[in-house]
Specification:
Helix content: 55-70%
Largest sheet: 6 strands, antiparallel
Number of strands: 13
Number of helices: 14
Oligomer: single chain
Number of domains: 3
CATH class of the largest domain: Alpha Beta
CATH topology of the largest domain: Rossmann fold
CATH architecture of the largest domain: 3-Layer(aba) Sandwich
Order of helices and strands: EEEHEEEEHHHHHHHHHHHHEEEHEEE
Shape: elongated
CATH superfamily of the largest domain: P-loop containing nucleotide triphosphate hydrolases
Distance between the termini: 23 Å
Length: 668
């Protein structure tokens, strides 16, 4: 439906007594403040929907006298001639006061207002009139297409629902089918009702596999405790060593000299000391590695803290902006309620006007011109007194009703205002908490960075080797060991210890027998097989965990791709504005939103002129979406310039503040 306003006639509507405006494709209306520019728009919306241009049903349309009091007994009328898809139609709405004189009363009392409606001069019932208007253009669509500020001021969910109609009907399967990256995800998208169901399925499976994964190490450890704690490889080496020693002893038995005992003593001392040297080295290596490992873990913890704090600050900033916008919105609502309260408070009831005194003519016969006799005279006086009393009572009742209504209205406004103030206070408290959180996260970042710097300095001071190159004690131990081994290598064992060697040989053989027994008893093959089985299961479960995580990762990637595609499709429909339709949460999920921006600047931060230009761009696109147009009323049009006013197919009516004391209308 393409609607154009050709003519608008107003009588006794608010501050306009009698005015007719002819409109063209572009109409400029100039005038100083309070000269009636917005009244023209109010008259048009009142004619169609019974509301002012801001959408309020309760607003004063009756003209006021010089003292600010409503003028009674005047007929309010608004008539418009519209062009609806090339068909001309005349709409008319008239409001009259309903004055009722109750039985026995001398004066009439106002019982409300009565509206009458006409279409092309034919009277219509209100229901039929409203149905005709609704069929021509629904009220919500009319508001969107006639006011540049309306759509951006709607609830973001309603904005988003409207914008999503611009994205087309591409299914999840079609979107995933366009990219080989999502080939593994396609079977799930074809079966599942939604991506949320897929996420729930794999999140549940991941939780179950991780639980199983966490249980397996304990089971492996339990089976491992069944192993015989014997180092077979070391025993084999020791066995070979014993065999060799026995062989050497047997060969040396006939060669042993008297110095054999001393030789054996030196040999054992050197061997024992060699173990001490190796133990010292091992301890130093373990200590250095433990230091490096501990510091690496602390540095990774610092990096994780810094990254998490930056992420928290990012989302806290977004929350800060949202709270600021809500506080500003409620502040405006508070100011509006204050103005409404002041206006209601200023309303006054008309002053009391007494009944005129009884004149002499009223006591004189109009025929004979003689004064009435006492009975007739007294009756006339009593009737006049009764009339005065009744007049006074009626005035007081009217005054009391007026004051009660005024008090009730003021109380309602105050309650609403107090509620708004409470909301503002709560929002400011939330904003303070958010800013406090930001400060805490920033302090955490500073502390973590300082700690990381200190740890890196400590790490740089730890030697990369075992750290014994400058150890004086270790150097002395090595020197002593070298001397012991050199002295031992130069000694001759002699032959005098033959008997001792026999005893030694018996001991070696007994020790060999014990070692062979231990080797025979250390068969852990069955336990080791079970451990290997559990370890294989652990690897398989780990793969299952990785598989679930991969599918969830693919789902997140797909959701990002889908939301990017939807955003690009919708934003391509607009010339000036862009829409932010999704937010990425801390856990990687996607949260729906709807925020209008111009060159990256939020709509709420734009000046009046840029808001109008953005609103016109929105109207242009939504007009194409709905296949409809209506006259666009641009209030405060003086804030925009001709060069940034976009070309628009719909009719444009610009309301501009000027120094003209009377309204001036120009058409293009």
């Amino acid at each position: 439906m393409q609607i154009k306003l050709k003519n608008l006639h107003l009588e006794n509507f608010k501050g306009i007594q009698n005015m007719t405006v002819d409109f063209a494709d572009k109409t400029n209306i100039y005038g100083a403040n309070a000269t009636g520019k917005t009244t023209i728009f109010d008259g048009f919306t009142w004619l169609l929907f019974g509301k002012d241009s801001a959408g309020n049903e309760k607003f004063d349309i009756r003209p006021l006298d010089a003292e600010g009091k409503c003028i009674d007994n005047v007929e309010i009328k608004v008539t418009a001639i519209l062009d609806a898809d090339g068909v001309e139609v005349e709409l008319s709405k008239i409001q009259k006061q309903n004055w009722v004189k109750k039985r026995g009363a001398d004066t009439a009392v106002l019982q409300g207002n009565v509206n009458t409606f006409e279409i092309d001069g034919y009277p219509k019932r209100e229901s039929d009139y409203k149905a005709y208007i609704s069929q021509m253009i629904p009220e919500d669509l009319f508001k969107i297409l006639t006011s540049p500020q309306y759509f951006a001021g709607m609830d973001w969910r309603k904005q988003r629902a409207t914008l999503m109609k611009l994205a087309g009907e591409s299914s999840d399967v079609e979107i995933a089918g366009d990219d080989p990256e999502f080939s593994k995800l396609l079977p799930e998208l074809e079966k599942a009702p939604s991506t949320d169901d897929i996420r729930k399925k794999y999140t549940k499976a991941l939780s179950e596999w991780k639980k199983r994964q966490a249980e397996l190490p304990a089971r492996i450890d339990e089976v491992s405790r069944q192993l015989v704690n014997i180092d077979v490889a070391e025993l084999e080496l020791y066995k070979n060593h014993l065999i060799q020693k026995i062989s050497e002893t047997e060969r040396a038995m006939d060669e042993c000299a008297g110095t054999y005992k001393e030789y054996q003593k030196r040999f054992e001392e050197a061997a024992a000391f060699r173990k001490e040297v190796e133990a010292y080295r091992k301890k130093a290596e373990d200590k250095a590695e433990a230091q490096r490992t501990g510091i690496r873990e602390k540095i990774r913890s610092c990096d994780s803290t810094i990254k998490a704090a930056h992420q928290e600050i990012k989302f806290a900033r977004l929350e800060e902006e949202r709270l600021d916008r809500r506080i500003n919105s409620h502040q405006e609502e508070k100011l509006s309620l204050q103005n409404e309260w002041k206006a209601k408070k200023a309303q006054k009831y008309p002053d009391y006007v007494p009944v005129p005194d009884l004149s002499q003519d009223a006591l004189t016969c109009p025929i004979c011109h003689r004064e009435f006799q006492d009975d007739r005279r007294e009756q006339i006086i009593r009737d006049h007194e009764a009339l005065c009393l009744k007049h006074k009572e009626d005035y007081e009742k009217g005054l009391d009703a007026f004051e009660q209504d005024k008090k009730k209205s003021l109380t309602a406004i105050e309650e609403k205002g107090n509620a708004v103030v409470a909301v503002i206070r709560e929002l400011k408290s939330e904003l303070e908490q958010v800013r406090k959180q930001i400060a805490e996260h920033e302090e955490n970042i500073r502390e973590a960075e300082l700690e990381k710097s200190d740890l890196e300095k400590i790490m740089s001071q730890i030697p990369v080797d075992d750290g014994l190159s400058d150890d004086q004690v270790f150097a002395e131990m090595q020197g002593r060991l070298i001397k012991m081994e050199e002295a031992l290598s130069s000694m001759d064992s002699g032959t005098d210890g033959r008997n001792l060697m026999k005893v030694r040989l018996a001991g070696l053989r007994e020790e060999l027998s014990e070692t062979e027994r231990k080797i025979a008893s250390s068969d852990n093959s069955r336990v080791e097989a079970r451990i290997e089985e559990l370890q294989e299961e652990h690897r398989e479960v780990g793969q299952k965990v990785a598989d679930q995580e991969q599918m969830l990762y693919l789902l997140d990637r797909f959701t990002m791709r889908k939301m990017q595609r939807i955003s690009e499709t919708i934003n391509s429909k607009f010339n000036t504005v862009s829409w932010k339709l999704f937010d990425i949460q801390i856990n990687g999920g996607v949260k729906e939103c709807c925020e209008c921006t111009v060159n990256g600047v939020p709509y709420s931060a734009l000046n009046s002129g840029h808001r109008i230009v953005a609103g016109l761009d929105i109207i242009r696109t939504l007009s194409q979406l709905h296949g409809a147009s209506a006259p666009i009323f641009i209030d405060n049009a003086e804030s925009i310039n001709e060069f940034n006013l976009p070309e628009m197919a719909p009719q444009m009516i610009c309301l501009s503040v000027s120094e003209d004391r009377d309204l001036k209308v120009e058409v293009e």
